[in-house]
Amino acid sequence: MAESTRSLSDLFGILGPRRVTDAAPASEVPAATSGEPSYPTKALQKFLSHMQSSEGPLLLDLGPVVGGNVTFFGEQLGCRLRVEDVAKDIDQHVKSGTLDKLPEFFAKRFTERQGTVDGILCWDVLDYLDRPAAQALATALAASLKPNGCLLGFFSTADSPEAVYTKYVVVDDSTLRYRTYPASRPRQRTLLNGDIIKLFKDLRVTDSFLMKSKLREMLFRKPAPRF
Amino acid sequence: MVNIGKSVVIKGELSGSEDLTIEGHVEGRIDLKDNVLTIGPNGKIKAEVFARSVVVLGEVTGNVTASEKVDIRDNGSVDGDIASPRVAIAEGAHFRGSVDMQRIAGKTGQPGQPGKPATTPQTQPQPAQQGQKVGA
What chain A residue is nearest to B98 in terms of C-alpha separation? Predict the structure, then answer.
């Protein structure tokens, strides 16, 4: 049954995102104390519930360090969290004019042994990469995941010329605060559903949510090997 | 409360049984497992750190293990792995490494071997040797 459900999800993934829209508009989300905009999230809750099935999971966070997130994931999951700020890597390569070396860099970037990571918070970093670099990063991430490991990715569905990254600050399991900060390059071309599925060809799409914030939230899972 | 001043450089092992604030430079190992260690804004640490609580306002390079809490304040910097049941990182703080919040008091593992079983430091707490300058 589980297998057939997964296959159905995959089919949805191939045909297009499951158009689950976030019910509450941003204004209805409990006001953030800082006055920054808050948005609902659907995929985070699913990611968390998946992670809760592992004891002391190892999590990779590809965003910048957000103290509140470290506390949140630590308290929710009792996890080991490794912060690997990929935006910083992109900035360094832009500054040194070596963007063409990013694919090689990502192939060796992560020190975790293959198949040892339970969950990856990829956020929206792939939006900032050219195709070869995005492919190299996606391949490295998929390899680092354990069988049944889970990856949470965000993908913008609208072009934005602004050169800003977004910190996704977790307010609770169904609310995120978006905090922007300067980036060395804007988002690259918008990834279509098919592009994303090709990037993560070794993973299966389990959920895809199109949010009112023009973000597609996607959850991937690494299939367990069949014997 | 003991203070290690700005001009003090310590190379070697520092252990003690009272709360300590470091404004100087320490290289080696710091073991204050029942006390609070504060790295002041001028403090620069290149050491493995074990304490009950660690507050970082300066710079730490090395793994930090605390049985209660690690608190990296605004402008504080940690380059290394943190193992503590509670971790707070302020906006504006720098951190590079991993955070392990699954370990509990008295079960701290050796830094650099994440996920390995606990190994309690064998050395008995000694009074802090303020201003001690040990040869490299």
Answer: A82
Assess if residue B132 is contained within a domain.
Answer: no
Beta partners for residue B10, in sequence order: B26
Q: In total, how many domains does chain B have?
A: 1
CATH class of A2-221: alpha beta
A chain contacts of residue B93, beta-carbon cutoff 8 Å: 65, 67
Give B118's DSSP letter.
B
pLDDT tens digit string along A161-179? 889 999 999 999 999 999 9
Q: Do A80 and B96 touch (CB under 8 A)?
A: no
Domain ranges, ordered by start, for chain A? 2-221
C-beta atoms of A70 and B99 within 8 A: yes
CA-CA distance, B39 to B54, in Å (whole number)?
8
- A60, pLDDT greater than 60: yes
DSSP line for A182-199: E-SS---SPPPHHHHHHH
Q: Tell me the per-residue pLDDT of B99-123, one tens digit each, with 9 for 90 and over.
A: 998 744 344 434 333 333 333 333 3
